[in-house]
Amino acid sequence: MEQKSTTINGVYEFKLKMHYDSRGWLSEVFRQEWDVPCPPIQWNTVFSKKNTLRGVHTHLDHYDYLVVPFGKMLLGLKDLRINSPTFEVSNIVTLSPQNLSAWLIPPGVAHGFFFPQDSIHFYGLSGYWNLEMDFACKWNDPDLGLDWPTSNPTLSKRDQQAKTLQQVREQLRQLQPKEY
């Protein structure tokens, strides 16, 4: 497995090997022996219908390890950590099984998932999910710098009622003032 740095400090892409035969394909997506900071202790699988947007969320207490084995995801990222060398950097990358990889997202990097087609993704968390430590930001807040290819995605009720990026930053500063 090859580990690559990305445009945001602490976000890593792990290129996964795919093994094909007449039945389809197989890929190892995680091994404890791989050099993955903060390995997952909780795994979740998610099916998303076309035109769904999940997020944009950030959290303070765990890493996410993300793989898309079916469909297509546009992963939007925004570095909110004031002490990071990539503070304020935004980026959207495409994840799909055509170029299978795992992405590691550290605490303090906001992330959202847009699905232009029906898709399945799974992700591991380095700590157990906790709603009180998960902060939701409006998906289309211009301060995110994320140019999503949709103007009317399907959103959860929570994401419909999400705060502005400025409000989320204030919440983060109250919890960890030296980092946000």
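(ticket continues) Second input and output from the same batch:
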Amino acid sequence: MRVLAWAYLLAMFGFILLPVVVLIVFSFQDSRLPVPPFDGPTLRWYAEIIADRALMEALMNSLLVALISSAVALVLGFLAASGLARVLLPGSALIRGVLIAPMTVSYLIIALGLLQMFNAVGLRPSLVATGIGHVVINLPLCFAIIYASMGEHQKNAMRAARDLGAAEWQVLWHVSAPMLLPSLAAAFFLAFTFSWDEFIIAFLLTRFDVTLPVEIWSMLRSGLSPATNAVGSIVFLVSVAIVLVLELTLFRRRGA
């Protein structure tokens, strides 16, 4: 049984990771097509994408949108979780359900709804519109992580601080936020990861200033190239690096 379990585990990881491995390997292909036989290795495609001004601008746009939208989603999620944990309102369960509901909705539906709403209010497709869209999809994630981390000891500490005369902002800043720091960091970095490589909302809500996934899609329209493999490898490695940092620092420290 143990042999079968290990075989299943290896097959599962192989099924998941084999396409990524192929992507990374052929990003070092020396010929112009990322297909066998492998001809390399070379770093020419990485040098080419670094020298590509449009690609670097898209990279900076993705970083900017991911940082700002994740920070906004984190603050809003933290405030919503703190409020619902402090006061038991009529229909609190319904409110929590509404806050988490966007997690169950297709990004395409959210993007189309936002596009129509922005057209109605006069907001043209832009990085600002994309950032708002990413707040919409990341706010439920941040709220769910933070609210689930609020145990009775956090709530009791917040009540004690209020009883001792602390203002609400002091309770949130000096008591609640430090106690929930691992959860806040986890929520922020996960939101950043989702925003960093999100395509559908960015595709529909941008026009001239695009994010990196949209720029990669534009590159793919002209056919496969080791350059697209190199960009995809960078996107994948950044996402993996964020998850590894979380696992080796915050999650391990929390478990200890």
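Agent notes: The longest helix spans residues 53-86. The mean pLDDT is 83. Closing as not reproducible unless the customer responds.
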